[in-house]
């Protein structure tokens, strides 16, 4: 298993180019199942999760290729309607084939995702919506078997805003009979990017990006041809890399409007963040100030930024209260940060972070995608050497992060 060796204490300086958003690419890849033809998606990051989704689509009969950030998917013949446990257990986002398969094939057999490191992550809301649209749903031997000759438009209310739940039901609704209203829908930019891709395929959608999305079913859709939005979580991660090392980074290719709540909190922590026409200049202060944060659905502070922000707060002046309100177990990075000298106490969904003068490098273990990013950030700021193990978690969401950090002056290398 790969490890990352990091020599901390360097103030990062230079420019970094942000890649395409993984969590926009995944649903838009499965949206290709809604049409029969040659689909092209560009600005796709070369990540493990993208390769896993490609393997799943191949298993369904799709001809999948990826080269230089461009994915082509020929969906003329679908030869299977099953997403097997072996694949779904490695990537929960596999559940995103459910909506398009039922819409196109009238049936789907998708393994229930099972838990993952950060929580139980059920798909009950996805299945509730499909039932409302007339589908029959049977749960057997860990699989959801969903059948519907033709889905019908329906009014669906989500008890909690679910990102992939909203995306699955959007993809089910675009070919359904009649009008579907999704209420308390997720408003993430990745949901909007999916809506834009579906509209470019000929779908009739209003309200994406708000909590009420209205979709009017059409008879058929053209193949997708779309370029993915920049990754707001990768952007936020590099902003924190500037903040935690006291450096100055110019971030290019990002969409600044997707980061409001993150920028507000980082400025409160003392970073200067200036938008220019060809990028965003982010500077870390001499001394960071502690800031309280509560993760919320978009446009609130992203849960996917919580671990990275905690690393920043671990060396800030004072005490910060970090509340994780989306997932029930997303504090696995706390024990690892404490091994590096952080002073953090967890009670339920609240972590109390008391800033220390500096962290000390240590061997640490990555446990999930964003936790591993927070350990890399901590290693960049720590005195001495940090070894981050199980880097495969990191590779799921960050394209060769060491190759983007090295030009900024970071002393980081991957060892087998
Ligand atoms: C998406 O996961 C993202 N993944 C996650 O990013 C992100 O952390 C999450 O949204 C929250 O923003 C992708 O987009 C591929 P949810 P998702 O459904 O859709 C509960 C990463 O780092 N819930 O919005 O699975 C659920 O348990 C990943 O790339 C139900 O109870 O998250 C959670 O507590 C990690 N029943 C809350 O809702 C359901 O049917 C929000 O989950 C669905 C969700």
The small molecules bound here are:
ligand EPZ
Task: Give Rg in angstroms.
Answer: 21 Å
Number of helical elements: 14
Shape: elongated
Level of helix content? 25-40%
* SS strand fraction: 25-35%
> What class, by secondary structure content?
alpha/beta
Low-confidence stretches: none
Mean pLDDT figure = 96
**Strand line-up across the major sheet:** 22-23-1-24
Task: Give a verbal description of the structure.
This protein has 416 residues and is α/β, with parallel strands linked by helices. It has 14 helices and 24 strands. It has helices at residues 22-31, 48-59, 85-88, 98-105, 124-132, 163-173, 189-200, 232-245, 260-268, 306-313, 332-339, 369-381, 392-395, 401-405; strands at 3-7, 13-17, 38-42, 63-67, 70-74, 82-83, 107-111, 136-140, 143-147, 155-157, 179-183, 204-206, 212-216, 225-227, 248-252, 272-276, 279-283, 293-294, 319-323, 343-347, 350-354, 363-365, 385-389, 411-415. The strands form 6 sheets. The protein has a 4-stranded mixed β-sheet, with helices on one face. Strands 2-15-17-16 form a 4-stranded mixed β-sheet, with helices on one face. A 4-stranded mixed β-sheet has the order 4-5-3-14, covered by helices on one side. A hairpin with a 2-residue loop joins β4 (63-67) and β5. The longest helix has 14 residues, at 232-245. The chain is elongated and about 65 Å long. It binds ligand EPZ. Ligand EPZ is lined by residues 23, 26, 92-93, 119, 121-126, 160, 162-165, 186, 190, 303-304, 326-327, 369-370, 397.
